[in-house]
UniProtKB/TrEMBL annotation:
This is Iron-responsive element-binding protein 2. Residues 68-135, 218-648 form the Aconitase/3-isopropylmalate dehydratase large subunit alpha/beta/alpha domain. It comes from Takifugu bimaculatus. It is found in: Cytoplasm. One of its GO terms (molecular function) is iron-responsive element binding. The keyword Protein transport does not apply. Its main location: cytoplasm. Keywords: 4Fe-4S, Cytoplasm, Iron, Iron-sulfur, Metal-binding, RNA-binding, Ubl conjugation. GO terms for cellular component: cytoplasm.
């Protein structure tokens, strides 16, 4: 909130009105009396209100207000700024931001400035969620490997025939009442059952306080042990977070074991409208994750930015953006009863991906929107990064307000909210076409055309109708290696590899499911999808079906609320009986934190060069991400994850082939156990009640015992522990001067990496587990850590030494210098092939600057700050590519790395570049947005590139050496 206390000095003070008899004030853009306002998309009206309210003549100018108001003429032309109401950090991307702020306090203190002045000016929430690893499964506790997958040898001719049931534990219920918080099995199910080839051990339940009612309950040992391991291995990092919550003003840390960042943002942090200093205004947010767009489903404008940009916003700078085009997505038609919300999500994703709407806003309208619940809308909005739009906005309507009644907003707050939103015309009825704004273009999507789909085997945009899955997987085996193909020769496609598990022989084939994970984060937070899966599990158990005991199954609820409603609806015990045990809360499988598959399963996969499969209801499934030996991964709705786990293979036609065979020999088809939409809706209405959200809020406010007992330093500056391998003061502020240095040319630079098209942030930024032969592992070994203590890159994001070594360390990196995938490159002066970090280290010792050559869509994928910080610390001065993903381009600028784009129709090949030349770029005294510069090579070539600066602010940030140095100089 900027400059509202000095109302008379505000250039738009004449727009101020009052609500509640003048007790609350607001800026009303309608008082501009400009007919253009009623034609603006509602997302643009939110931008306009923020520009009016925050107009200070410096960051936000009256020119910005006029340009936004004149959106029809200025879209894609004018550069404006946006000041969000708050910043959202999740711990993996939030810890580097907080480490940088702590280091900035050190830097300004060295110049004699009070370090306590360094605080976020914008309210900042940090949610600790991304640190859960599956160390234990139920099978592991029974002294057997974590379950894998495949086809039982006794059923080799019928892969869908069931194997024996899994053991099930018995637990007491909270308060002993029906529908209360039992986290173990329902008492009317067997306490244990046989496993093939091994004895059965009853799992003892450990008493724990119910997180919802604070009453004694029983917790399965798997979830408890995973939680204990998470908290113990990350204690040092959590101590730093707690220091941040105490040392910095305007920082709120949501402790661990509460839930995933986007769930907490939706269910606790989001307010639709904010009230600060007596002024009411729309809630808005930028977050350090591309899926921040999830809140767009609630009519809250927000999107993901890089960690560097979020730090700038935290410290008072607005977000610069080109005034976007807004695509109106008109939804018509009726939803098919068998179609889940995930099918609708993937269907809309495909349509919008094909529409080439990168960098634009999408705003939904039309009568079909009214059929979507608020969770449906947030699910759709979550997938926004997959079709490269900036936001997917659902304006607020009566459905949104009804949703907030369930989340325990007081009637007074709801009345105030509705009155304000209607007063400024950012509330609408989708049934009234007269309220439809004017859009840049309109895309119409018929909801009745949506059919059940999965996505894969390597990219989220590659959708496959479930009815065509068997044929599509066969084509993947036939096709050459690429985004879908695996190129398996015909003579090897029918191979069956036997292996032993728990004393029984089974077989793996191409298409065998070895990982099945039901996850309720981000795009699957919708209760209807999880309840459909639970009801399917219930019907499967009742029909006598089971999941093979070696398929690595897991159930990772995004928050305790999910466990609560699955439990109170009575489906959680059936999940458990099929092997989908609650393993804890937080991101696990889809961020690469999958426990290793059993060695016999891995050996069988390798022996047959099998295309084994993972099926998960998360949001990421690139090849090798779940597990290095699992080459085909499919995103599916939660009920389809259960269905494919029951089948044991993805190569199945559910219409024609049975899902399984009961012990009596009866064939059971998917249609026999698929719950109806009416059944799901009835269960949802009975279980998703306001008390769930009240319990969540109480849980957040009360915290947990572990968090309360963490001790942290009581100091203004952080006392860095030089022995720490988790938290380290980065070198971003070394040799920081008060004056802005003159532009420095890049002379005789070598190419660190010569890359092709579609290099994603997964290829660039460290993620997942730390390989034992990696440069990061060598560093940790030098610190006397064992491989068991390595933890993950995500947990060590606060240590620049680990993260720099993990940059470009992906086993899937395709470097043209090497000719095969791997984290290696060519040290050009010596001609040696070495780790990327080792090459960069040599170049820095030799005083040689570095650049990167790349193809199209460089930097697509998740938002990650280390995707720019890592290259900066490796010594990269510029990236020359055919095109950039916009968010990543902004991150490069934010770290002082030049994003340079080849001219149209030009690339490294057309220019005859080998990558082994030396490159020189003369830097002019003054830079301007989209300026053309000339690059010269040591072999006499010369070519022009475009400096991809979008605005003068970009140029200023680059001249300072990035956001961090720019902000630090404001204190000096």
């Amino acid at each position: 909130m900027a400059h509202t206390s000095s109302v008379k000095a505000h250039p738009y003070s004449n727009l101020i009105e009052g609500l509640k008899d003048g007790q609350i004030k607001f800026f009303n853009p309608q008082k501009l009396d400009d007919p253009r306002y009623d034609k603006l998309p509602l997302s643009i009206r939110v931008l306009l209100e923020a520009a009016i309210r925050n107009c200070d003549g410096f960051y936000t100018k009256e020119e910005d207000v006029e340009n936004i108001l004149d959106w029809q003429q200025q879209q894609n032309k004018a550069e404006v700024v946006f000041t969000p109401a708050r910043v959202l950090l999740q711990d993996f991307t939030g810890i580097p931001a907080m480490v940088d702020l702590a280091a900035m306090r050190d830097a300004v203190a060295k110049h004699g400035v009070d370090p306590s002045l360094v605080n976020p000016k914008c309210p900042t929430d940090l949610v600790v969620d991304h640190s859960l690893q599956i160390d234990y499964s139920k099978c592991a506790i029974q002294n057997t490997p974590n379950p894998g997958g495949g086809v039982g040898s006794n059923h080799s001719q019928n892969p869908s025939r069931p194997a024996p049931s899994r053991p099930l534990s018995r637990g007491s219920q909270c308060g002993g009442q029906q529908g209360s918080c039992s986290k173990a099995a329902c008492s009317d199910l067997p306490a244990s059952s046989g496993r093939p080839g091994g004895s059965v051990q009853q799992i003892e339940n450990t008493p724990l306080l119910c997180p919802f009612h604070l009453q004694p309950v029983s917790e399965t040992e798997t979830a408890l042990k995973n939680q204990e391991m998470e908290l113990s291995r990350n204690k040092e990092r959590l101590q730093f977070f707690k220091w941040c919550s105490n040392a910095f003003k305007n920082v709120n840390v949501v402790p661990p074991d509460v839930g995933a960042v986007h769930q907490v943002n939706l269910e606790h942090l989001s307010r639709v409208v904010q009230v600060t200093d007596g002024f009411i205004y729309p809630d808005s947010v930028v977050g350090t994750d591309s899926h921040t767009t999830m809140v767009n489903g609630l009519g809250i404008l927000g999107w993901g930015v890089g960690g560097i940009e979020s730090e700038a916003v935290m410290l008072g700078q607005p977000v610069p953006l080109a005034l976007p085009q807004v695509v109106g997505c008109k939804l018509v038609g009726s939803i098919n009863p068998l179609t889940t919300s995930i099918d609708i999500v993937l269907g809309i994703t495909k349509h919008l991906r094909q529409a080439a709407i990168a960098g634009r806003f999408v705003e939904f309208f039309g009568p079909g929107v009214s059929q979507l619940s608020a969770p449906d809308r947030t699910t759709i909005a979550n997938m926004c990064p997959e079709y490269n739009a900036t936001v997917s906005f659902f304006p607020i309507d009566q459905v949104t307000l009804k949703h907030f009644k369930k989340t325990n907003f007081s009637q007074e707050k709801l009345d105030l909210m509705e009155s304000y939103l209607k007063a400024v015309k950012i509330f609408r009825s989708y049934e009234d076409p007269s309220e439809d704004p004017q859009y840049s273009e309109v895309i119409e999507i018929n909801l009745s055309s949506m059919v059940p789909q999965v996505s894969g085997p390597k990219r989220p945009q590659d959708r496959v109708a479930v009815s065509s899955m068997k044929e599509d997987f066969q084509s993947c085996l036939d096709e050459k290696v690429g985004f879908k193909g695996f190129h398996i020769s015909k003579e090897k496609q029918d191979i069956r590899i036997p292996f032993l598990h728990c004393g029984e022989e089974y077989q793996l084939v191409h298409g065998s499911v070895v990982i099945a994970s039901v996850i309720s984060c981000t795009n699957n937070c919708n209760p209807s999808a999880m309840l459909t899966a639970g009801l399917l599990a219930k019907k499967a158990v009742e029909a006598g079906l089971v999941v093979r005991p070696y398929i690595q199954t897991s159930l990772a609820p995004g928050v305790g609320m999910v466990t609560h409603y699955l439990n109170t609806s009575g489906v959680l015990p059936y999940f458990s009986q099929l092997g989908f045990e609650v393993i804890g809360y937080g991101c696990a499988t889809c961020v690469g934190n999958t426990s290793p598959l059993p060695e016999p399963v891995v050996d069988a996969i390798k022996q047959g060069d099998l295309v084994a499969c993972g099926v998960l209801s998360g949001n990421r499934h690139f090849e090798g991400r779940l597990c290095a030996c699992v080459r085909a991964n499919y995103l599916a709705s939660p009920p389809l994850v259960v269905a494919y786990a029951l089948a044991g293979t993805v190569a199945i036609n559910f219409e024609q082939e049975p899902l399984g065979v009961t012990s009596e020999g009866k064939e059971v088809y998917l249609r026999d156990i698929w719950p109806s939409r009416e059944e799901v809706r009835e269960t949802e209405e009975d279980t998703i009640i306001s008390s769930i959200f009240k319990d969540l809020r109480q849980r957040i406010e009360k915290g947990n015992m572990f968090w309360s007992n963490i001790e942290c330093p009581d100091s203004v500056v952080f006392p860095w522990d030089h022995k720490s391998t988790y938290i380290r003061s980065p070198s971003f502020f070394s040799k920081l001067s008060k004056e802005v240095p003159a532009p420095q040319s890049i002379e005789n630079a070598h190419v660190l990496l010569f890359l092709g098209n579609n290099v994603t942030t997964d290829h660039i930024s460290p993620a997942g587990s730390i390989a034992r032969v990696s440069a990061a592992a060598k560093y940790l070994l030098s610190k006397r850590l064992t491989p068991r203590e390595f933890n993950s890159y995500g947990a060590r994001r606060g240590n620049d030494a680990v993260m720099t070594r993990g940059t470009f360390a992906s086993i899937k990196l395709q470097n043209r210098f090497i000719g095969k995938a791997g984290p290696k490159t060519l040290h050009i002066p010596s001609g040696q092939t070495v780790d990327v970090f080792e090459a960069a280290e040599r170049y820095q010792k030799e005083g040689i600057p570095l650049i990167i050559l790349a193809g199209k869509d460089y930097g697509s994928g998740n938002s990650r700050d280390w995707v720019a910080k890592g290259p900066y610390l490796l010594g990269v001065r510029a990236v020359i590519a055919e095109s950039f993903e916009k968010l990543h381009k902004n991150q490069l600028v934010g770290m002082g790395i030049m994003p340079l784009q080849f001219l149209p129709e030009q690339n490294a090949d057309s220019l005859g570049l080998s990558g082994k030349e030396k490159f020189t770029l003369a830097m002019p005294d003054s830079l301007s947005p989209r300026q053309q510069l000339t690059v010269k090579t040591s072999d006499g070539k010369s070519f022009d590139v475009t400096a991809m600066f979008d605005s003068e602010i970009d140029v200023i940030i680059f001249r300072h050496g990035g956001h961090l140095r720019y902000v630090a100089r404001t204190f000096l």
